[in-house]
């Protein structure tokens, strides 16, 4: 505090700084509220998607196990190699309180039996069922990836915003208020001292005036 210049301009600067810090804190709180609202919405979607993914993956694994057991691992492996395919994906984004929320669009994953590349004569419906099950799993997984990425970005930004809110609320604003109060106290003390000096000066002036008046009355005409 000893380095602070206790002047009116510094007092005004501290008051302006406090107003600005409070405004910034309030804006950050509004941003955090918007981010948390979007996070809650996506979290509900993510939980539903995860449950759906787990169920579809369980069914797909059961279909695969059945196909391997009845058709043999070589037949299933050969069909899997023949069915390999690329899936086109496109990322788009929207901004929520300055955070990019990802949306992933992709080509259809599911295919007809005749489009999977393996010989229908050399395979059975069990392999078709397993292929269809895992195509469904991949489709749900692609949808889930975009949600998970958005959730991570939102969580990181919520954490950063919370740190900034806490810094303003518990460090910056209290420090500025303490400096403001210090400057105000010093200025008030100075004003009080000036008033006391002024009163003393006036008292001395009045006393001299009375003494001068008394001497004038006693002097001969």
Automatic annotation (TrEMBL):
Stretches for region Disordered: 202-221
Biological process according to GO: proton motive force-driven plasma membrane ATP synthesis
Coiled coil stretches, renumbered: 25-70
Annotated keywords: ATP synthesis, Coiled coil, Hydrogen ion transport, Ion transport, Plasmid, Transport
One Pfam family in the UniProt entry: ATP-synt_D
GO molecular function annotations of the record: ATP binding; proton-transporting ATP synthase activity, rotational mechanism; proton-transporting ATPase activity, rotational mechanism
Domain of life: Bacteria
Cited InterPro entries: V_ATPase_D
Family designation: Belongs to the V-ATPase D subunit family.
Annotated function: Produces ATP from ADP in the presence of a proton gradient across the membrane.
Name listed for the protein in its UniProt record: V-type ATP synthase subunit D
Organism, as annotated: Rubrobacter radiotolerans (Arthrobacter radiotolerans)
Gene: atpD
């Amino acid at each position: 505090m000893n380095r602070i210049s206790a002047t009116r301009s510094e007092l005004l600067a501290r008051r302006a700084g406090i107003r600005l810090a409070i405004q910034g804190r309030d804006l950050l709180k509004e941003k955090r509220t918007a981010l948390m609202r979007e996070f809650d919405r996506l979290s509900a979607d993510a939980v539903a998607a995860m449950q759906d993914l787990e169920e579809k993956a369980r069914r797909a694994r059961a279909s695969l196990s059945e196909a391997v057991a009845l058709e043999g691992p070589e037949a299933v492996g050969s069909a899997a190699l023949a069915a390999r395919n690329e899936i086109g994906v496109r990322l788009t984004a929207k901004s929520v309180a300055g955070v990019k929320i990802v949306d992933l669009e992709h080509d259809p994953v599911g295919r007809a039996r005749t489009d999977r590349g393996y010989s229908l004569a050399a395979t059975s419906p069990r392999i078709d069922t397993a292929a269809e099950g895992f195509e469904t799993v991949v489709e749900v997984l692609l949808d889930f990836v975009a949600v998970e990425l958005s959730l991570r970005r939102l969580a990181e930004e919520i954490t950063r915003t919370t740190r900034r809110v806490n810094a303003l609320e518990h460090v910056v604003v209290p420090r500025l208020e303490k400096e403001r109060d210090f400057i105000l106290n010093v200025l008030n003390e100075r004003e009080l001292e000036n008033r006391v000096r002024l009163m003393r000066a006036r008292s001395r002036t009045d006393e001299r005036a009375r003494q001068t008046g008394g001497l004038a009355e006693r002097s001969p005409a």
